[in-house]
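step=encode ok
step=design start
structure_in=
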């Protein structure tokens, strides 16, 4: 995750996301509720790379910063909530359902969670190195301040550790 990832993101295709959601909702026995539409990462290349790890790799967790939700006045993910993950063009590809959410400080993120994120070599050392670089780059640009791991012990600055499963499209058996 280097500075070449800091590129303009294209608009999300909300109409296609709504159609995907409608198809998914019709397949459910009960109403799945609402959804959000998002990318992984902060550039088209990173969005594509991380989404590929979800669809063809071992990625079934992600992390974000609590202050990003607070700044946008958005609720934190909840167990059972859904989000539609888009590729680097803004096209919806999969629907994910959140299966676990924990708020942790940087030093509380463990090797098991780092492994579940499925990135790089899946080690905790790699997770810490790459996420620190990413958050320093994005937080400094978005909030005009330098992000540091130590601040994540403060409520409002913690790391949102989210586990998920792909629920649509359904895998063919």
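sequence_out=
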């Amino acid at each position: 995750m280097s500075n070449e990832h800091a590129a303009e993101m294209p608009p999300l295709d909300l109409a296609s996301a709504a159609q995907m959601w409608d198809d998914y909702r019709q397949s459910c026995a009960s109403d799945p509720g609402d959804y959000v539409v998002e990318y992984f990462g902060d550039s088209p290349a990173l969005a594509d790379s991380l989404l590929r790890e979800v669809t063809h790799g071992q990625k079934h967790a992600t992390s974000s910063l609590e202050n990003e939700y607070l700044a946008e006045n958005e609720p934190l993910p909840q167990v059972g909530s859904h989000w539609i993950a888009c590729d680097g063009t803004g096209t919806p590809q999969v629907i994910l359902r959140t299966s676990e959410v924990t708020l942790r400080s940087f030093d509380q993120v463990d090797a098991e969670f780092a492994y579940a994120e499925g990135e790089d070599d899946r080690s905790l050392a790699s997770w810490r190195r790459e996420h620190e670089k990413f958050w320093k780059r994005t937080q400094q640009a978005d909030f005009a301040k330098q992000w540091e791991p130590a601040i994540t012990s403060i409520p409002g600055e913690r790391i949102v550790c989210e586990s998920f499963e792909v629920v649509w499209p359904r895998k063919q058996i």
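step=design ok
step=annotate ok -> The beta strands are 35-38, 61-65, 82-86, 92-104, 159-168.
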